[in-house]
Amino acid sequence: MNIAIANRQRTKKINSRRLRQIVNALLAALEISEAELGIVLVSAKEMTRVNRQFLQHEGSTDVITFDYSDSAGDDLRSLKNKKPEPPHVGTDSHIYGELFICVDEAVVQAKQFGTRWQSEVLRYVVHGVLHLLGHDDLKPALRRKMKLEENRRLRELTRRFALSKL
């Protein structure tokens, strides 16, 4: 497992070592046997730039997932048109990708939903990893299924780790 964390935001102090421990626990729970995962923590300004450059969307967002596996293809723009593959969780699961996570959005959404910003950051990590496993949230039925799995994984991690130390 190779998990690289880059903290390029200054909104909140984040314990990268603790985040890596939590991500390792998530990957183990998902039975992912091999991972090359980059997690880039960014500000709203940088997320806006990434969102515009790679997805042609305006404004910031909470998380953007880039899948670098062979099945994802080389052109990042093709991710929008890629047909979803069924989620694959098992002992031979591999993920290769990068998650851009906006800490500013986590702070805003935590206030909106009555949670902690640390919980929102972790939610975005779980969400991105589920995308790398093939989950899709473009259609309502798939979105509900993904949200249930996201909530379940977040609850498990919250029971194991004190998120306030993130």
Mean pLDDT: 90
Strand content: 15-25%
CATH architectural group? 3-Layer(aba) Sandwich
What is the overall shape?
globular
User: What would you call the structural class?
Assistant: alpha/beta
CATH superfamily: Metalloproteases ("zincins"), catalytic domain
What is the helix/strand order? EHEHEEHHH
Give the biggest beta sheet: 4 strands, mixed
**CATH fold description:** Collagenase (Catalytic Domain)
Task: Please characterize this protein's 3D structure.
- By secondary structure, the protein is of the alpha/beta class.
- The protein has a single domain, classed as 3-Layer(aba) Sandwich (Collagenase (Catalytic Domain)), CATH 3.40.390.
- It has five helices and four strands, in the order βαβαββααα.
- It has a four-stranded mixed β-sheet.
What does this entry show, briefly?
This protein is an alpha/beta fold. The protein has helices at residues 16-29, 44-55, 103-113, 117-132, 140-160; strands spanning 2-7, 32-42, 63-67, 93-102.
Comma- or semicolon-separated keywords:
166 residues; 45% helix; four-stranded mixed beta sheet; alpha/beta; 4 strands; Collagenase (Catalytic Domain)
Detail the topology: elements first, then pairings:
Blueprint: E1 2-7, H1 16-29, E2 32-42, H2 44-55, E3 63-67, E4 93-102, H3 103-113, H4 117-132, H5 140-160
Parallel strand pairs: 1-2, 2-4
Antiparallel strand pairs: 3-4
Helix pairs in contact: 1-4, 3-4, 4-5
